[in-house]
Structures are given as C-alpha cells and as structure tokens.
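Budget justification, computational time. The allocation requested in the original proposal was used primarily to generate structure tokens for proteins on the priority list. As evidence of use, we reproduce two of the resulting records. The first is shown immediately below.
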Amino acid sequence: MDTRYILDARRHARGAIRPTMIAVIAIVVLLAVGAWFLIIKPHQDLVMADSGGHPSTPVSTATRAAPPPANVAAMDLNQLLAEARTAMNEQRYLAPSGNNAFEFYLRVLEKEPGNKVASDALRETFPFAANSAEQAINSRDFNEAQRQIDLLAKADPANFTLTILRSKLDAQRKTLDKQQQLALDQEKAAQLAAQKAAADKAAADQLAEQQKALAAEQQKAQQARAAQQASQQTSTAANATDSTGAAAAGADQSGATGTNAAAVLVKAAPARYPTAAMRTRQQGWVVVTFTVDPDGKTSDVKVLESQPRHVFDRAAIDAVERYRFTPAMKNGEAVSSIKQQRIEFKL
C-alpha cells in the first residue's frame, strides 16, 4: 500500500515539473529580447549616430589618406567631433598621424574631460584601432606601430590589449634583428670563404710553379750527368780498343813463336758510376786483383784497396768481371794468371 502511494506521488511530481520548466525558459527568452530592444540596440544606435553613421549602413573598408585639417588646435568641440566622425566613417582610427579619429576624440576630452560621446566612441572603437596597430606590427612598420600603441595608451592606458601589442612589437623587432644579423653573418661567411678560396688557389698555383721549376732543374742536371757518363764511357771504350789491338798483336806474335806470354786485355767494360756518388759529385779509385782463366774470362775478383772505402768497390768488381783477355801462354798453351788493375772514378 505504501509503495503504490510513493510511485503515484513521483509520477505526479514529474508531471508538475515540466510546465514549470517551460514557463521559466519562456520568461528568460522574453527578458533577453526585451534587453536587446530596450538597452543594447538603443545604445548601439546612439554610438553610430554620434560617429556619423547609421546602424544599417555598412562601413567602408577602404582607408583614404585625407589631408589633415588646418589649425586643429583652434577647433571647438563640434568641429572636432565632426572631424572624428568623418575619420570613423573612413576607418582612420589611428592613422594618418594628426588626422585620425582617436586624436580628434582625445582633443575633445582635453577640452571637455568626461565628454560622453568621445569617451564612448574611444571605448567602442578601441578593438578596431588595436587591429590597425597589429597590422602595422605585422607589416614591420615598427615606428608607426609604436605611435599607434602610444595613442591607444592615451585613450585607455589600463587596457590589457596594450600589453599584448607591445609584446608582439618587441617580438617582431627581435625577429627582424635576428634575421638581419643572420643575413650579415651569412654575407661575412661568404666573403671569408671567397677570400680563402682565392688564397688557396694562389698558394696552389705558386706550389705548382715551384714544382715545375724544380722538375726542370732536376731534368737538366740528369741530362748533364748522362752526357758526362756517356763521355766517360766513350773514353774508356777507346782505351780498351787500343789495348785490344796491342793484345791481339802480342797474341799473334806469341802464337807464331810458341813462347810464353802474359794475359792481354782484349775487351774492357766501362765501370758504371754509382748514382749516389754521382749525385754528391764524389770521386775516387779502386785497386782490384783478379784471375784470368785459360778461356780469357775473369774470376776471383777482389778489392785490394779503395778510396773512399766501399763507395766504388762494387762498380769496379762488376766492370772487371766483364773484362775479356787473351789468356797467358806457357809453352804455347793457355794458362791461368793473376792480374792487378787500378780503376779511376772521376767526374
């Protein structure tokens, strides 16, 4: 019994709430509409009328640079308000300097502090004027932006929008400074790179010339050494030819008589001048002893004495090993014999 009573009471309560909520919503809507027609719209109409416009008239977006009026300081309130309304219609909120709505309204307040028309107009148009200052910042016209911000500060020094505008202006200035500094650094780096490249090229050209001159000198010296060595070899060969002729004559004579005869050089080999000694223009001599075999070849070549020691030894031994002799004869037969020879090395 109690449960059914409670459920019936709840259904009855829900049914009663719905009409109440609808009535509350309707009252709120009526109050909003009334506030619009009774408070907000008349106030907007008043502001538009004071600024020389009409609520239904669209504001032109084109800003014309009108010449500033003459003798602004001598204007009365009505003239200043008229100039301000003209500037508002042309959206000259903050610019150009000396001929904009804010400056005219501020002059009105200087002549009549607390003037409602000027105060309301400055307050209502502050956001639009702030947009104008922001556009100047974005265009990086920093001097103009600073002038407009200062003008806004005269109208409403406590407005937080000023802090935002000043921060944006400072940030844009710093950004521009960084970009300009970066451009200068890049230009300087490019100049330094070009200078370094030119210096490197000059150094490379100079080194190439030096190497070319050095190579020419080395080639000239090598040609001179080769010519000198060829001359020396020619002289040695001529001496060997003379010795060969004499040896051949002696051999013929000994062969004819069948008597004993010493070994005779028939073919001499010029000693090769050591490269190291030629480079340092070193001279010397070597005394060698060797055996002339029955076939006329040499063997057992040894150095007895040399000056300087060990410089020309190998060259002397190699030369003697290439010598050819008419062997020594004993009782008409070829026999081995020991010989000794001094070989000169001169430049």
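The second record produced under the same allocation is shown here.
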Amino acid sequence: MRVKLVVSGLLLGVLSAFAAWAVHWSFEDHQEATYELPGAVTKLSLGHGPQEATRADSIEAAVELREFLAERSLAVVIAPAGDGPPRLVVADPGDALPWYTPPNPMNKHEPGRARRGYVFEGTYSQRQWRRGSSPALVPEEVEIVGTVSPPEDAGDLQYVRPLGDYPLPPGQYLVNTDDPGKLAEIRDIAYRAGFADFSTERVPLWRHLRDDPLVGTTGVLLGAGYLAAVLCWTPGLRDRAGEFAIRTRHGATRARLVRQVWPRGLPFQLLGIALGVAITGVLVSLVGLRPPDRIDWLVMAAAITGGLLVAAPTWLLAAVLGTRVRSGVGRAE
C-alpha cells in the first residue's frame, strides 16, 4: 500500500504541478492583456463618432480626463487600435503601474510637457535614441527624454507618453475600475472629444481563468486523477480485511480505524506529490532552456501545498470507504 500511495501521489503531483502552472500562465496572460493594471479592469474601445469635435475640443477633453483620473486615483492605459502608432498613452497619478517609472517625472507646469515621451528598453527605437538619432518609429511631435521598462509582452510597442495637453487619441482605453458611474464620466469626456464607445469589456481575473482552456483542461484531468486515486486506494485498504476484522472484534470502532489508517498514509502521499512536482519542474526548465527562477519555485511550492490539501481529504474518503466495509465484515464474523 505504501508503494501504491507513493506512485499515485507522484502522478497526482504531476497533475497538480501542471494545473498550478496553467493558473500561473493564465494569470500572466491576464497581466499582459491589462498591461498589469491592478484590481478590476474595464476596456473601452473608443473611436471617432458621428459628432464633430475640433482639435481644441480634443485637447480640452484630454486635460479633463487627466484631471478626472487624478481626482479618482485611477490609472488608464491607452493602447493603439488596429494599425495605430506603436505606443502607449498612460495616466497613472497613483503609481499603480509597476513598469511605468519615468526617470524624470514631469512637473505639471513644465514647458514642453505635452511633447515628452519614453522609449521602451530593448526596442529598436531605444537603440536609435542611444546613438543620438531620432527614432524612426516615433513621430516628430514626441520628444524622447528617457527610457522605461516595457510591460509584459509589449510586442512591437516602441514608446510610451503621458496623457498630456494634446488631442485625445482613439484606441483601447483600459482603466482600473468597473464602477458604472466612473465609466460613464469617462465616456462623456470621450464624447466631447468626438469619440464613441464601440464596445465595453470587463476583464476580471476570475473570468479569464474560467475561460482559459488550459486551466479547464488541467482542472478536469486533476479531478479525474483524484477520482481514480479513490478507486485505487479503496481496494488497497480492502486487502487488509483480516486485520480490520480482528481489530473490530476487539472493540475498535470505524472512526478509530480511520484515525489509525489516515495519518499513516499522508507522508507517503507527500513524498509522491513532491517527487511528481519536482519532475514536472525539471521538464518545464528543460523545455524553457533555463533554470528555475523565484516564480517557478513559488509555483512548485503552491503545487505541492495544493496537491496535499486535496489529496488529504481524498485519502480520508478512501479510508472511510475501505474501513467501513471491513468493519461490517468484522461484525458479521
């Protein structure tokens, strides 16, 4: 039975590790989709509407939006839509974005504030800027004054500029709130800039996890694995029918049998789960051609903890089912 517990625990450890990595990868995908905005995130697709607006109206709307976000302690990331320029526009008065750390934050009344921007590190535009050339992918009206780290999976994005005194750009507006009142105010400001809200999408983490096929698949496999474990462990306990029958004749209750069997199997399950998670960690490192980093170790620790937390009650269920049959046999004899 001990070997069976270790081997089955190893297989459950592999499934638990893959489930943990699936959740981690899905979380990273969500972070990439929301540009690492914290909390509830809503995406507004704003484009040119039927109403007319002048350049002055659009600039006034941009200033109004920036002040509104500062008053509400909200952050917004404006991503290009379609074939727009390879840039992000950011307003982050509360320092909510971990990657947006301008080396020389701008004073509200500083001259030339509206023209400033920052190239992303590791991009073609940064290499051009380092050589003293004007980045070809950055428009002339933007003055590059420094560099910032790019968000996760920035792709072809080259630079970021703060929301300033220039026309409000169309695109995907990601804001860290799902409050209907605040979103309505943002739409009103955008309307005065000549925009219309073509779609509104809330992107909560739980929904992203729910809709992720990899998370769903690994979850189903993990559930099936624990069901198979019950079907495997219960017959193993029934093989000890004679032992349980003798204990029952000498006054052992079913609860006492369970209390004796259950804790003795946990160390072997823990050993198997740890081995399974370790094997999976080695495979992930080999596929990624890199040693495990801090995040990988945290994922593996979560897999071991989660695997044992689920395996323990599963083993308890198997112990209850196995000893109940033997107790009945003992009384009959």
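A brief technical remark on that second record: The first helix runs from residue 2 to 33.
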